């Protein structure tokens, strides 16, 4: 039995090596993890951007660079042109012995106030060494945006695992080997299990790649694997359904995209909506997977919470399985 399942998995692996779209899906987690590392702001990054003249005092430029991203320009006109661009950057321009602040007008007031404060501190010759404030952090070393992006990508990888299965089912249909399974010693359950391995392997490989590349090394990996595997069940089930119902790879990929809507909705609900709106999202397994992953990535989750979220996802997945299993078995006849 194990040999038959293994042979099905090896065949899928061989087919995916020849398919560009499948290869792209397999490499996607690594590409997106590198992108998150490059573009997500670090915990010590500042969001204050200042524009100064190159001819301004060197010590002033160094002072501002300790607290803000500083860009220098040759003329006042160059600064004005830069300030008029779409992002938030504030010009600090000399005017005789004083300076004036040049915002575009639509920047957050806090940003303008911070630019004024920095300029005042420089003019008063106040340095970091002059402060008597003691810095005590609460151990939050990962930017919230990075954690949210990684969590969202983990859900996306589960969907892509289902997409990979649908590609392999479509390929079997194209070769007319799906119905041929019925006249071989391989049972339908063994076929389904064999086809699932490529999707599960991809989900585990992709999720661990993203977590490790983005630097979430100090977490409970057993808890993470529990949430990943449980959360991917529905995607894998829908991968079978879409593979059976579609006759080419592109239409199968387009059908799987329907999962993106509840996935994105779950993330936005948890991150943006108040408690009174949360009830509307309880039926979505991605909602509970996201909450569980969030606890694991922040290192604040205990096993009771992880098991509760996993149990909820399992129950929802079981209900979906009851609704779909007849279609899957019939499609493989």
TrEMBL record:
GO terms for cellular component: membrane. The keyword Ribonucleoprotein does not apply. GO terms for molecular function: ABC-type transporter activity. It comes from the Bacteria. It comes from Senegalia massiliensis. The chain crosses the membrane at residues 21-40, 149-170, 191-215, 221-241, 253-273, 306-324. Residues 24-324 form the ABC-2 type transporter transmembrane domain. InterPro entries: ABC2_TM, T7SS_ABC-Transporter. Its main location: membrane. This is ABC transporter permease. It is a multi-pass membrane protein. It is found in: Membrane. It holds the Pfam family ABC2_membrane_3. Keywords: Membrane, Transmembrane, Transmembrane helix.
């Amino acid at each position: 039995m194990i040999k038959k399942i293994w042979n099905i998995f090896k065949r899928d692996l061989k087919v995916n090596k020849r398919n560009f779209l499948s290869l792209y899906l397999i490499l996607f987690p690594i590409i997106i993890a590198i992108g998150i590392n490059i573009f997500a702001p670090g915990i010590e990054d500042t969001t204050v951007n200042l524009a100064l003249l190159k001819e301004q005092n060197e010590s002033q430029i160094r002072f501002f660079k300790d607290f803000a991203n500083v860009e220098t320009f040759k003329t006042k006109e160059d600064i004005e042109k830069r300030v008029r661009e779409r992002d938030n950057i504030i010009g600090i321009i000399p005017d005789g012995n004083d300076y004036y602040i040049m915002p575009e007008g639509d920047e957050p007031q806090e940003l303008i106030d911070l630019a004024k404060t920095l300029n005042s501190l420089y003019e008063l010759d106040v340095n970091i060494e002059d402060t008597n404030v003691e810095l005590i952090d609460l151990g939050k070393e990962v930017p919230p945006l990075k954690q949210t992006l990684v969590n969202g990508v983990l859900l996306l990888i589960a969907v892509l695992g289902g997409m990979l299965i649908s590609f392999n089912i479509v390929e079997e249909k194209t070769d007319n080997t799906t119905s041929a399974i019925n006249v071989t010693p391989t049972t339908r359950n063994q076929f389904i299990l064999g086809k699932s391995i490529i999707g599960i392997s991809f989900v585990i490989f992709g999720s661990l790649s993203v977590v490790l590349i983005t630097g979430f090394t100090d977490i409970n990996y057993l808890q993470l694997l529990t949430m990943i595997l449980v959360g991917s069940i529905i995607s894998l089930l829908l991968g079978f359904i879409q593979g059976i119902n579609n006759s080419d790879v592109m239409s199968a990929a387009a059908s799987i995209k329907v999962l993106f809507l509840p996935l994105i909705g779950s993330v936005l609900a948890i991150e943006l909506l108040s408690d009174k709106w949360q009830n509307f999202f309880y039926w979505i397994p991605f909602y509970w997977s996201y909450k569980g992953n969030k606890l694991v990535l922040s290192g604040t989750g205990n096993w009771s919470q992880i098991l509760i979220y996993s149990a909820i996802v399992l129950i929802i997945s079981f209900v979906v399985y009851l609704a779909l299993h007849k279609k899957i078995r019939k499609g493989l006849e």
